[in-house]
Amino acid sequence: MTDLLIAGAGGFARETASAVQAINRVSPGTWNLQGFLDDDSSLHGTERGGVPIIGPLSMVDDMPDAAIVVCIGNPRNFHARQMVVERLRLPAERYATIVHPSASVGSGCLIGPGTVLLAQVALTADVTVGQHVAIMPQVVLTHDDEIADYVTIASGVRLGGGVRLARGAYVGAGALVRESTVVGEWSLVGMGSVVLRDVPPGEVWVGNPARQLRLVQARG
Ligand SMILES: CC(C)(COP(=O)(O)OP(=O)(O)OC[C@H]1O[C@@H](n2cnc3c(N)ncnc32)[C@H](O)[C@@H]1OP(=O)(O)O)[C@@H](O)C(=O)NCCC(=O)NCCS
After folding, report:
1. Which residues pair with 171 in a beta bridge?
2. Whose CA is nearest to atom 27 of ligand 1?
3. What's the mean pLDDT in 85-104?
4. Comparing C-alpha atoms, which of 93, 13, 83, 90 is closest to residue 53?
5. Number of H helices, E strands in the chain
6. Which of 170, 213, 217 for mutating ligand 1's site (highest number of atoms within 8 Å of CB)?
7. Cα–Cα distance between 145 and 139 in angstroms, integer?
8. Span from the CA of 39 to the centroid of ligand 1 (angstroms)
9. What would the pLDDT profile of 20-79 be if each residue is shown by its tens digit?
C-alpha cells in the first residue's frame, strides 16, 4: 500500500479523494490516503469528507515515500496547478496517476503522472494525456486526441477525433470541440460552447459557434 497526499482541499481535491476511495473499494489496499495538504493554516486539523487536512504543502518533503497529486485550480485561476507543481520541484515519479474505476481507457491511450480521471470518463483509442491534467466526470475523449500538461477538462466535455488541447487549456463544462481543431495554450472555452475552429493561445471563447469573448488575464 502506497501513502498518498492530495495537494489542495477544495472541490477537485475532495472529488479526487472520492476517486481514491472508489479505487480502494475495487482494489483494496492500493492507496493509503494520508490526507490533504493546504497552506491555509486555519484548515489544519480539520476534515473534508472524513479525510484530514494535515498541514502545508511543504509536508511533501517530510514524507519522501508518499505519492502526491496536485488538485488545485478553478476557472478563475487555472494557472494555479502549474504554479504549485513548479514550486514543489518533485521528480515525476513522486506523482500518482488517479483513474476512477468506472473510467474507460481504450487501447493505445497514455496517461501521464499527476493526472486525474474522475468517474465515467471515456478515452476511446490512442488518446494521449499529459502530466497534471484534470479530467472531470463523463468527459469523452476520442481517437488521437492530444491533451497537453496542465489541461483542465470540466464535466461532460466531448472532443472529436484528433483534437489538440495545448498546455494549460481549460475547457468548460459540456463544451463540444470539432474534430482536428486546436485549443491554444492557456486558453479557456466557456461552458456549453461549440468550438468549430482553432482557438488561439491565451483567449477566452464562448458560444455556438464559439467566438472570442476576451483575452485570458495573466495568471488567471
Ligand atoms: C467563459 C467564462 C469564463 C466567462 O466568465 P466571465 O469573464 O466572468 O464573463 P461574464 O459572466 O461576465 O460574461 C460576459 C459575457 O459573456 C457571456 N458568456 C459568459 N459565459 C458564456 C458561455 N459559457 N457561453 C456563452 N456566453 C457566455 C455572458 O452572457 C456575457 O454576455 P453579455 O456581455 O452579452 O451579457 C465563464 O462564463 C465560463 O463558462 N466558465 C467555465 C465554467 C465551468 O465550466 N465550470 C465547471 C468547473 S467548476
Report:
1. 153, 189
2. 206
3. 97
4. 13
5. 2, 24
6. 213
7. 13
8. 30
9. 999 999 999 999 999 999 999 999 999 999 999 999 999 999 999 999 999 998 888 899
